[in-house]
Amino acid sequence: MLIIPAIDLIEGRCVRLREGRLSSEEVYSKEPLAVAELWELKGAKRLHIVDLDGAFEGEPRNLEVVRRIAKSVKIPIQFGGGVRNLKTIEEVLNCGVEYVILGTSAISQPVFVEKAVKKFGERVMVSIDASNLKVRVRGWEKGTRKTAPILAKEMERLGVRNIIFTDIKRDGTLRGPNISQIKRMLKAVDIPLIVSGGISSLEDIKKLKPLEKRGLSGIIIGKALYTGRINLEEALEIGNR
Which CATH superfamily is domain 2-240 in? Predict the structure, then answer.
């Protein structure tokens, strides 16, 4: 099971938000390249990078930072934030990114998602971000009536091969993951699921590890790594068991 460090970008800074609120921004580093290199040095096998400016504005704003990171590290990068057309996907992939994450477009442009999957295959991932299992879009600012399990099924039918599920209510809170919601998502689809939101301790990872047999392929960890509550090497050891 992959343990994936998160790097969230605002104006070139490495930050964390609480429940996706800009007013809760905490800056952890003004040198995201150094952060990426550190996580690779500690053994990470993949990085999760989100352009928060892009998520709010509708197109990526930190691609130059991402390009520098991709040139410096050897591990794959999955990137999202404002990717809403085929041209942008190509631009992101040309930066050296391995996987492009689509979010808002999963709700607003399912035809685009289908085209993207046909053209780029497994390099296209879909992020489903939800509060109480109700999907939110456009940087989590706008709610929808769609539930996360139903959207996940729709994306699977379109050919999406990897889904990221983020529990907004837990994201950045260090409250631990909502395992019952994760189980509902795993039950909804037969494709690999990566989860994010609330991971706060090695115990959380140990609780999630058995779900690998049910399709949980990875865990994204952010704030707990930056605050030192989780040691990445120890987390990777659990993930590799």
Answer: Aldolase class I (3.20.20.70)
